[in-house]
Write a sequence for this structure.
C-alpha cells in the first residue's frame, strides 16, 4: 500500500513540473505583434463618378491571418483571410459626397490593425454656358467664342467638334478648376457657307461629360444682284407709264436689307426671300437720264 502511494505521488509531481515548464514557455512566446493591412487602391483623395470602385489591398501577419474586413457605408464585410484581397463596391445606391473606406486585419490571437482612405464620389454632370455666339447667329470671318464651364469637383477639358461630333479635335481648354471661363477666336472661313452645327463637349475630373450644340449661319459670300426684267427695257423713253424692275439676290441667305435709288430718290422695294421688285414713277416735267443704284446688305 505504501509503495503504490509513493509512485502516485512521484508521478503527480512529475506532471506538475512538466506542465509548469509548458506554461512558462507558452507565456514567454505570446503573440503581441499586430498584423499589417494597407488599402492600395483607391488612393486617399481619389475622385470617382457613378461607377463600380475596385478596392484592393494587402494584409499580413508574422504568424497567420485570421480575418480581413472591409467597411464602406454599412457593416464590416468579411473578405476571408487572403493576404491579397479585393472588393468591388457598387456605388449606384449612394449619392455624391465624401466617403471613408476602412480595412481591418485580425490575427489568430485577436491582434488588430486598420487602414483607411477617404474618397469623393461625384455623380453630377458638368455644365457649359455659351455667351457668344448665340444659337442661329449669322457669322462671317473670325468670330469670338466665349463660354463658361462649371463642375462641383473640377472641369478638366472643353472640346469642340466641327464635323457633327465625329471627332472633337479642337481643344478649347485643358486643365482644372470648378469654374472655367474662356474666350477664343474661331475662323468661320474653315466652315462651308450655310447652317453649321458646332458640338461642344465638357469633361470633368471623373470622366463624366456633357455635350452641347450651337448652330451658326455662316455667310462668307459677298452678295450680288441680278436684274431679271425691266419694263420698259433699258434705254427706252418713259412717258407716263411706270417702270417695273425686278430681279434676284445671289447670296447664302435672303438679304437683310435692299435699297433701290433712282437719282436722288429712294424707291420702295418689295422683297420676298431672294426675289425683289420695285415700281419707279417718273414725271414728264423732268425728262432726264436716270441711273438706278441698288444696294443690298446680307445677314
Amino acid at each position: 500500500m505504501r509503495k503504490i502511494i509513493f509512485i502516485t505521488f512521484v508521478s503527480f509531481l512529475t506532471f506538475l513540473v512538466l506542465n509548469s515548464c509548458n506554461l512558462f514557455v507558452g507565456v514567454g512566446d505570446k503573440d503581441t505583434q499586430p498584423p499589417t493591412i494597407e488599402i492600395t487602391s483607391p488612393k486617399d483623395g481619389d475622385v470617382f463618378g457613378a461607377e463600380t470602385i475596385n478596392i484592393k489591398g494587402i494584409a499580413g501577419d508574422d504568424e497567420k491571418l485570421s480575418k480581413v474586413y472591409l467597411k464602406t457605408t454599412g457593416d464590416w464585410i468579411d473578405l476571408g483571410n487572403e493576404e491579397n484581397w479585393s472588393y468591388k463596391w457598387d456605388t449606384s445606391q449612394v449619392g455624391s459626397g465624401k466617403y471613408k473606406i476602412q480595412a481591418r486585419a485580425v490575427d489568430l490571437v485577436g491582434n488588430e490593425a486598420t487602414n483607411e482612405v477617404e474618397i469623393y464620389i461625384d455623380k453630377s454632370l458638368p455644365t457649359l454656358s455659351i455667351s457668344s455666339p448665340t444659337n442661329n447667329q449669322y457669322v462671317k470671318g473670325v468670330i469670338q467664342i466665349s463660354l463658361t464651364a462649371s463642375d462641383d469637383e473640377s472641369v478638366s477639358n472643353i472640346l469642340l467638334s466641327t464635323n457633327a461630333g465625329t471627332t472633337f479635335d479642337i481643344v478649347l481648354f485643358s486643365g482644372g478648376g470648378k469654374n472655367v471661363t474662356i474666350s477664343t477666336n474661331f475662323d468661320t472661313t474653315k466652315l462651308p457657307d450655310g447652317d453649321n452645327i458646332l458640338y461642344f463637349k465638357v469633361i470633368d475630373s471623373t470622366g463624366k461629360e456633357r455635350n452641347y450644340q450651337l448652330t451658326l449661319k455662316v455667310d462668307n459670300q459677298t452678295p450680288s444682284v441680278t436684274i431679271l426684267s425691266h419694263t420698259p427695257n433699258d434705254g427706252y423713253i418713259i412717258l407716263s407709264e411706270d417702270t417695273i424692275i425686278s430681279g434676284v439676290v445671289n447670296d447664302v441667305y435672303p438679304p437683310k436689307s435692299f435699297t433701290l435709288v433712282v437719282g436722288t430718290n429712294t424707291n420702295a422695294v418689295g422683297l420676298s426671300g431672294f426675289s425683289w421688285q420695285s415700281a419707279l414713277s417718273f414725271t414728264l416735267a423732268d425728262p432726264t437720264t436716270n441711273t438706278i443704284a441698288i444696294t443690298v446688305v446680307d445677314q
